[in-house]
Design a protein that fits this description.
The protein is mainly beta. It has one helix at residues 72-75, and strands spanning 5-13, 19-20, 23-24, 26-33, 39-47, 53-59, 63-68, 85-103, 110-114, 117-119. It has one domain (5-74, 93-119): TM1070-like (Hypothetical Protein Tm1070, Chain: A, Sandwich), CATH 2.60.290.11.
Amino acid sequence: MMHGARRWYFPDGYLPKGRKNDLSSHESICILNANEEDAEIKITLFFEDEDPISFEVTVPSRRDIHIRLDKKEIVGFKLPREKPYGVMLESNIPIIAQLSRMDVSEDHYTLMTTIGYWED
């Protein structure tokens, strides 16, 4: 039995500005592959006023990864801060996905996490 879905959507992406001590505001795409084979995943970011940008990741079988979208060395480009975007994940096998946002731009920290819309 395979666990999860092949396509995931998160329409509310937003990389906040802000840095406190050694923390910076960021978003992470969290992917759980609970299956017995590796997941090859294409991640596409959609913007209001420019063409989509895509990158690919592999999630080994029975592993969980967290992709920090503010890390150019991980995603391959510099994601602009304070610019709305949407996320689509397409996987060769079913996966479970979540989007988390840490905002440290105010005196208090805010953490938001959501499970997106999925389909097979």
